[in-house]
Amino acid sequence: MMQQKILLVDDEPANLVSLEAILEDEELELLKAESGPEALKMLLNEDVSLVLLDVQMPEMDGFEVAELMRNRKNTQNIPIIFVTAISKEDQYVFKGYQVGAVDYLFKPLDPTILKSKVDFFLKLDRERRELQEKLKEAQAHRAAYEQAKRDGPQNNED
Asked: What is the CB-side half-sphere exposure of residue 2 using CA atoms within 13 A?
């Protein structure tokens, strides 16, 4: 099984360090971005299983990043968990879900809850990847079967 990647996005380096400390695991690769544009650039080159995304960032906020992710075929299905310190009002939470978040966590983070939610979405990602692999295998078998049917029985007489 390939190593799963989580993209951590926060404009505060200290927040990235604390997320990294909570999620550190030899089976995970933690990618870090300090801005929306940097995160989007990473998503072009990396196969990411989950994004933990700060809402309030200068230049491009988390909502904009999520909207852009949802508009790209390669990133539209990556789960996004918003992580925020200030945007607890219902309108912001609603907007987060509207732009494609699967969850919303408030700082200060409870490490046990964060870890539990991350584990859940990584498990779903593993299952999705396994199903895709089985589907590819089934399609290859079917193609081989169809080809054998088209070729017909081989006549091996001399």
From this structure: 13
